[in-house]
Amino acid sequence: MREQLPTFAYYRGTKEPEFATRTELEAAKLFDYHRIAWEYEPRTFILEEDDQGNILEAFTPDFYLPDLDLYVEVTEMKQSLVTAKNRKVRKLRERYPDIKIKLLYRKDFVRLAQKYGL
Fold first, then answer.
1. pTM for the full model?
2. In sequence order, what are the residues at sequence separation of 6 or more whose Cβ sits closer than 8 angstroms to the Cβ of residue 87?
3. What is the mean pLDDT of the chain?
4. Where do the structural domains in the chain lie, given as residue ranges?
């Protein structure tokens, strides 16, 4: 998704984020509006490996909110994406029980963006 990005005051990453969806951009705007420090896709978690240690499945949550120690994954409303993301979030919680993660849907961000005029 290449368009002119707003200047983000609370972005804590080292390189300019390249959002994959409009929903991710809306989430970033919302975090910034509420002065919540955030990073974009800072860590990938291994979910499954074979017997030789080769990675079979991994998951990179969309955002990390360092002040809350929370990962946030946002998803579009397509049922196939929702099902896959729910499965990955569940696997992440099983393999990394100390990692906090929330899955938020596009409708959640649309409602908040409308409420705050973003």
1. 0.86
2. none
3. 88
4. 24-116
